[in-house]
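re: the backbone from monday

yeah here it is again, tokenized this time
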């Protein structure tokens, strides 16, 4: 059983598994961190699965689980609520992708006024911030949105599920666009989650990365493969840089840099230039997700877009 939220004792904070994962990679949470169920009267110890795994796939993702079902209290609605089928709300609410994190998102210790372990446990788990899945979540890393995209693709709900992003609330289906022979004239300035296969390599002159998609946009007669540069300065101020570097270095070592890139951006081309090129400018590494080629298998298995090709 997968549980979304837990009480962490070290930080005295109630958090989602996503947040636990980010805090671990921001080096603000230990691999041995301890978590407990947030159900009424329940203190069942929980484990955060996949906490230290840099890669993410449909199966490999952070979530909480209990060691033993019997650990949960009789009164625990996190356990019993899911059993009686109250997991899914009647009207699904859109997920929310926040383009900027709150300023104190990676604070090192709990804020004054943060509810104590006890009061947090007493809060009814039926509220939005509970251990129960309400269907809607706030995300700060594009990777979390990509994960939802893969799940909706698997479940056949891409056309219904929505996500609030950049002032709009598109469906997951409309939001994700493949980099593949689209005319640059048609898509310049179209902000979307662009994705496709790519190669990532280290920059020669600094400790950053360069990404080139394997597929091209069309500009007139030419085909242009879009590129992304992740410079050292950009990475060094990013709180979850350890995760970003671990993922990219793993890909470079294991696949020669072959990867699948998802990026929230608009394609950019120079207005007047002899040389045609297309770039995605990324000013926040939270807006890019880079995965191993195994995600292609998941996409193939779940996608009608891939089948139609
Ligand atoms: Zn419980």
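seq for it, each position gets an aa:
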């Amino acid at each position: 059983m997968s549980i979304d939220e837990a009480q962490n004792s070290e930080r005295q904070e109630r958090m989602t598994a996503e947040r636990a994962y980010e805090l671990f990679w921001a080096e603000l949470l230990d691999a041995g961190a301890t978590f407990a169920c947030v159900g009424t009267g329940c203190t069942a110890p929980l484990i955060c699965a996949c906490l230290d795994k840099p890669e993410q796939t449909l199966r490999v993702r952070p979530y909480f689980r209990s060691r033993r079902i019997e650990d949960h209290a009789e009164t625990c609605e996190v356990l019993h609520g899911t059993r009686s089928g109250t997991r899914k709300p009647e009207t699904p609410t859109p997920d929310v992708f926040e383009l900027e994190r709150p300023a104190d998102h990676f604070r090192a210790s709990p804020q004054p006024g943060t509810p104590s372990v006890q009061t947090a446990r007493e809060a009814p788990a039926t509220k939005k911030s509970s251990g129960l899945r309400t269907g809607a979540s706030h995300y700060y890393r594009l990777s979390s949105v990509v994960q939802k995209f893969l799940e909706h693709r698997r479940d056949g709900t891409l056309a219904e599920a929505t996500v609030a992003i950049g002032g709009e609330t598109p469906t997951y289906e409309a939001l994700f666009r493949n980099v593949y022979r689209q005319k640059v004239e048609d898509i310049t300035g179209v902000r979307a989650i662009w994705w496709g296969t790519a190669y990532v390599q280290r920059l020669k002159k600094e400790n950053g990365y360069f990404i080139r998609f394997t597929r091209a946009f069309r500009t007139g007669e030419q085909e242009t493969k879009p590129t992304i540069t992740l410079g050292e300065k950009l990475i060094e101020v990013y709180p979850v840089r350890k995760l970003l570097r671990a993922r990219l270095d793993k890909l470079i070592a294991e696949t020669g840099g072959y990867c699948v890139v998802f990026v929230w951006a608009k394609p950019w081309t120079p207005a007047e230039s002899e040389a045609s090129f297309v770039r995605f400018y990324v000013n926040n590494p939270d807006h890019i997700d880079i995965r191993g080629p195994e995600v292609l298998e998941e996409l193939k298995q779940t996608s009608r877009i891939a089948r139609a090709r």
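Residues 84 and 145 are 28 Å apart (CA to CA). The chain has two domains: 5-106+118-140, 176-308.
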